[in-house]
């Protein structure tokens, strides 16, 4: 039946669908509670939608079909001449609000999940235009639609139907458009992370970001550095890049949307390993292909700057992305080699697969020269973080309670959660007790507290009072954990970074 319906619809050049939301029943006698847009649509049909939903409830009670649960969709056909197919989606409980146990706004997450499911069910029918119910939170609805419809199929002969989503009815259009921009920012990070490493080299990465920022040239300055890296004496960064034939790039993005041109910038630093073989400390071949996304930190940071510029946020942001490949060759760094970072500290490289902290060390040193109000670095840094938190949340290590509070507050809004991790002196001693140099890049006990010792290593290159390290290794990809994202690279936590940057506008004196 499904294939027949799809075949019938596919003959249309342009097919429009509609996504409407319904809340759970609040009592035994209640039917589904329609959103404002759904109720208006139902009224225009003289209650036909309500009748169908009641009929569905009756069939469900008889065991003839699954219930319309939270985050699920049910498609009805032939209800309206303008919308040949209408997806009704379950929003869960009305006004669920912030959940302290889950550390997110449940209502927003329910809307994202439900709208994503509805849009994808219509996309499977080759619908190419969808109007979406704002569901009481148009920004979350837009995020669900745009994030849910994204799929990286640029290199496939047969592609998914491209769907244009727009707001239905009289909901808040400004909020909808904001949600679209937030989601498109995350999708940009997903695109960069998903693309093969032979397509996204350091130079290609920088060129794509430059192209994305071109419409905002009056507010953005872009520097793509090559020989400059040596002039800056970034010995740790260069030690990683020299094993590859691809030249390294130090990408520097300046966005100034603040009316106060003297405002100190928020500095975002992203790890940009466009492919990580492990170097001489070669990784196992299993799943090595996923290391095309080891530049996820740079992808989310640069996508955040692009999004901030698109939103015209009244803040000043500098994005830094040291970009290179980590490859084995006759020129590659060898285990046991000692290199010198920009701040003069020497590093014994006992494992060349712990390379992200090396390129970040030099980038953090440079970031301090920019008079930052705060520094946040983002990196797919350690498998240990994936072991600790899995895909539930980004791990945050910070020397600032204020900075943690701002990041956490932003993550509750976006649903892309963060969780605070320890920066004990206990871990610092493990990286500073080194035989040949000031620091060891893996520490005394390489398997114990690996995410924490990596953070302690980075802390040795930080003097700023407000610094945070976000380890995103656990949230790099998505199987089915985040229902409104398809399987693949996630682009997390781009929206949280943007929401955090937007929140800084209220802090004028920091």
From TrEMBL:
GO molecular function: manganese ion binding; metalloaminopeptidase activity
Keyword Zinc-finger: no
Record-linked InterPro entries: Leucine_aapep/pepB, Macro_dom-like, Peptidase_M17_C, Peptidase_M17_leu_NH2_pept, Peptidase_M17_N
Alphabetic keyword roster: Aminopeptidase, Cytoplasm, Hydrolase, Magnesium, Manganese, Metal-binding, Protease, Signal, Zinc
Domain Cytosol aminopeptidase: 351-358
CDD domains attached to this UniProt entry: Peptidase_M17
GO BP terms in the entry: proteolysis
A GO CC annotation given for this chain: cytoplasm
Catalytic activity, as annotated: S-benzyl-L-cysteinylglycine + H2O = S-benzyl-L-cysteine + glycine; an S-substituted L-cysteinylglycine + H2O = an S-substituted L-cysteine + glycine; Release of an N-terminal amino acid, Xaa-|-Yaa-, in which Xaa is preferably Leu, but may be other amino acids including Pro although not Arg or Lys, and Yaa may be Pro. Amino acid amides and methyl esters are also readily hydrolyzed, but rates on arylamides are exceedingly low; L-cysteinylglycine + H2O = L-cysteine + glycine
EC number of the protein: 3.4.11.1, 3.4.11.5, 3.4.13.23
One Pfam family linked to the record: Peptidase_M17
Family, similarity comment: Belongs to the peptidase M17 family.
Function comment: Cytosolic metallopeptidase that catalyzes the removal of unsubstituted N-terminal hydrophobic amino acids from various peptides. The presence of Zn(2+) ions is essential for the peptidase activity, and the association with other cofactors can modulate the substrate spectificity of the enzyme. For instance, in the presence of Mn(2+), it displays a specific Cys-Gly hydrolyzing activity of Cys-Gly-S-conjugates. Involved in the metabolism of glutathione and in the degradation of glutathione S-conjugates, which may play a role in the control of the cell redox status.
The protein's assembly and partners: Homohexamer.
Protein's name in the database: Cytosol aminopeptidase
Source organism: Anabas testudineus
Taxonomic classification: Eukaryota, Metazoa, Chordata, Craniata, Vertebrata
Gene (UniProt): LAP3
